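INFO  loader      accepted 1 record
INFO  loader      residues=402
INFO  predictor   begin
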Amino acid sequence: MGCLYPGQRGTVWIMKLDRSLLLLLGLGLVARLLYAWLDLQTYASFDMESYQVVQGIVRHGGNVYAETSRYNYSPLWSWILGVLDFFQRATGLRAHLAICGFLTGVDAATCWLLARLAIAHGLSARHAVLAFWLNPISILLTGLHGQFDNLAVLGLLACLWVQSTGKARGWAWACASAAVLVKQIVLFAPLYTLLRAFPGRISRLAVWAACTLPFFLSLAPYWPGAAKGITYHVLLYSSQPELYGLTIFFPISRSRDPMLLLHELRTVLFIALIGGSMLLPKRADALRAALLAPLVFLAFTPGFAMQYLILPVALGALRAGKAYLAYTAIATVTLLGAYQLIPGVWNVMWYVLAAVWASVLVWLGTEVRSIWQAHLAGREDGDQRHALVDVDHAAGLERPAG
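INFO  predictor   done
INFO  writer      dumping C-alpha cells
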C-alpha cells in the first residue's frame, strides 16, 4: 500500500513496509545474490568473461574498442566495470558477485521508480514492486546472467517519472538520452517514452534524434585509435539471427541471399518501431505507450538474445495483467532451459522461442487495444460534452427576453 502526504516541496510518497512485504523483498534479494554467489557455469558465462576482459583493459588505461571485439556498447558500461574492478580488488569479491550485486542495486532503484510511477498513475505500488522484484526473468538475468539491460530500462523509467512530476522537458530528454547511452538496444524507446513531454510527432522525432547525441559523442575520444573496431563492433553490431519471430517464416540460413533478407527484416523492424510511435494518440496513457516500445521490438526483431526478455518486464509490472503473467511464465522456462537448469528444454528451444513470440504478440495486441479503446472513449466523451454545450447554447438563444 502507499500513502500520499502533502509537504512543503510537493507531495511526499511513503510506502508502508509491513512484515509480509519486507519478507517478499528479502526473498527477491536473496534469490539474486544467491545466483550471483553460486556463479553457475552456463552459456551466459561468456558475457561475464567479456566483462573481465574489459576490466583488464580499463585497468591499464587501454582502448576497449581497439583491444577487444567483445565490447559492443558506449564507453559508459566500461567505466562502470572499471569502478567495480577497483572495488573487487579492494574487497576481494569475485567479479560475478560484484557485477551482479551492482545490477541488484539497479533493480532496487527500478522498484523505487515503479512505486512512484504507480502512485502517480493511480495504480498499486505494492503490486508493481513485487511483480517486478519477484519476477523470475529479472532474478535470472540479474543474478545469474549479469546482463545490464536493466540499467537502460532504469533510464526510461526515470524519463517517465520526471514527466509525471511536471519537471522541465529537458530532464525527460536527459533521462532518455542516458538510457540510449547505456545500451543502444533501447534506441527507439524514447519515441514512446517522451509522448507526454513531446506529444507532437515532429518534435518527438527531433528530440529522439537529439537523444542519440550523447551516445555518439561518448565514442569520439576513442575514435582515432579504434575507428574500425567502433564501426564493426558497436555501430554495426547486432544479435545473431535466430529462429524467432519473423525468421520462423523467413529463415535466414535457408535464404539465397542471407544478408539481403536480414537487411529487409531489420528495415521492417525500424518501420514498425518508428511507425508505431507515430500512430500513438497524443493523449494515450503514458505507461501503456512506453510499454509498446519493447513489445514492438520483440515482435519484429529478426535477432534475439536472452537478455531481451527483460525489456518489457518493469513497465509490464505496473499493471501485471494476464498477458504479463503468461509472458513471464513462458520466458522463465526459456531462460531456465537456456541456462541448462531444466533438462531437455534446449533440445526444443525452437518451439519455446515460438511460444515466447506468440506471448509477445498477444501482449502487444492487448496493449494496443487498451490504448485505442481509451482514445475512442475519450473522443466520445468529448463529442457528448460538445453536444451538451451546443444544446445549452441553443436553449439560451430560444429563451424569450424578459
